[in-house]
Design goal:
The protein is mostly helical. It has two domains: 55 residues, no CATH class; 196 residues, Ferritin (Up-down Bundle). Helix content is 52%, strand content 8%. The protein is built from ten helices and four strands, in the order ββββαααααααααα. The strands form two sheets. It has a two-stranded antiparallel ribbon. A two-stranded antiparallel sheet has the order 2-3. Strand 2 and strand 3 form a beta hairpin. It binds fe (ii) ion (2 copies). One fe (ii) ion binds next to helix 8 and helix 10. It is found in: Mitochondrion inner membrane. InterPro entries: AOX, AOX_sf. Belongs to the alternative oxidase family. It catalyses: 2 a ubiquinol + O2 = 2 a ubiquinone + 2 H2O.
């Protein structure tokens, strides 16, 4: 049907303006089986529930999606206001599907600026984590994993030397891959075997997301050059496929390698901090996204950001060595509780 026929469609508009209210979010970090840190953030927010416009006709197709401008002619007052909102953002079909973004107001009265994460995804990192822990390679597989990571470090050291901002940004493009691959493969396994994953799918996807937020932060600090973008493209193509195959063949080896990669990440960020301390890298103001994601003070600096990212890496190290240890004991991941929300 080429044209939208109003006679065949019934338009329902529901507008639900909720009153402003205050929510308190609690973020807890589990460290060594105990709640290490609790933080709360009160966020005044309100959201406009979307206008739902439903068409009873089952023949509705994309060509029948009405132009919101034409709909405005048939609505008035508050309804008009709702339909105007998506137009402001350039999204013209969200009012049709009822998919409207929540409008969140921060404590300082400004609008929550991020679409990539919400206030309840933010957390205060556990900086008390032991950064010096190291898994001593014992088995043959451990030694292979350890040597592999040490070998990978050689070209990285040659290419980046002490340009730690650039180095961190580039390495985060790799670091966010293993969690996603592991989560994906465990997801498929859960479907294939009709069984729960023990929370490990979510835990690994959380890790991937956390790593990606490291990247989103570092890219605010260092702008990648064209040849660095090209390098990321090549490295991602190789690393994703190599890690995918490795995880299919030996998840315990895959997690062990990531555990050692995280140990190297801690080392790199420690060197980064040294250069910030001695002034060879300027200690600029923290990017706004980092302040909101890690709930840092408004006057936070790059040094604070690197410190919290390093703490995240230490958590990833523990999770991946733990995952490998479980499998080295001949057990499946689902047999041990997954460390959800462990940053
Ligand atoms: Fe990272
Ligand atoms: Fe990491």
């Amino acid at each position: 049907m080429k044209s939208f026929k109003l006679g065949r469609a019934l338009v329902h508009g529901f507008i639900n303006y909720s009153h402003p209210k205050t929510l308190t979010f609690h973020n807890g970090h589990l460290s060594n089986g105990h709640i290490a840190q609790n933080s709360s953030a009160s966020i005044d927010y309100f959201f406009f529930k979307s206008t739902f416009i439903r068409f009873l006709s089952t023949e509705a197709s994309q060509s029948e999606i009405p132009n919101p401008n034409s709909l405005k002619k048939s609505v008035s007052g508050a309804e008009k206001q709702e339909i105007d909102r998506p137009k402001e953002t350039g999204v013209v079909v969200s009012s049709y599907w009822g998919v409207m973004n929540q409008k969140i107001i921060k404590k300082d009265g400004t609008l929550w600026p991020w679409n990539c994460f919400k206030p309840w995804d933010a957390y205060t990192p556990d900086l008390s984590i032991d950064l010096s822990k190291h898994h001593v390679p014992k088995s043959f597989a451990d030694k292979v994993a350890f040597r592999t990571v040490k070998l990978l470090r050689i070209p990285t050291d040659i290419f980046f030397q002490r340009r730690y901002g650039c180095r961190a940004m580039m390495l985060e493009t790799v670091a966010a891959v293993p969690g996603m691959v592991g989560g994906l493969l465990l997801h498929l396994k859960s479907l294939r075997k009709f069984e729960h994953s023990g929370g490990w799918i979510k835990a690994l996807l959380e890790e991937a997301e956390n790593e990606r937020m490291h990247l989103m932060t570092m890219v605010e600090v260092v702008k990648p050059k064209w040849y660095e973008r090209l390098l990321v493209l090549i490295v991602q193509g190789i690393f994703f496929n190599a890690y995918f195959i490795l995880y299919v063949l030996s998840p315990k080896l895959a997690h062990r390698i990531v555990g050692y990669l995280e140990e190297e990440a801690i080392h790199s960020y420690t060197e980064f901090l040294k250069d910030l301390d001695n002034g060879s890298i300027p200690n600029m103001a923290a990017p706004a996204i980092a302040i909101d994601y890690w709930m840092l003070p408004e006057n936070a600096t790059l040094k604070d950001v690197v410190t919290v990212i390093r703490a995240d890496e230490a958590h990833h190290r523990d999770v991946n060595h733990f995952a490998s240890d479980i499998q080295f004991q001949g057990k499946e991941l689902k047999e041990a509780p997954a460390p959800l929300g462990y940053h």
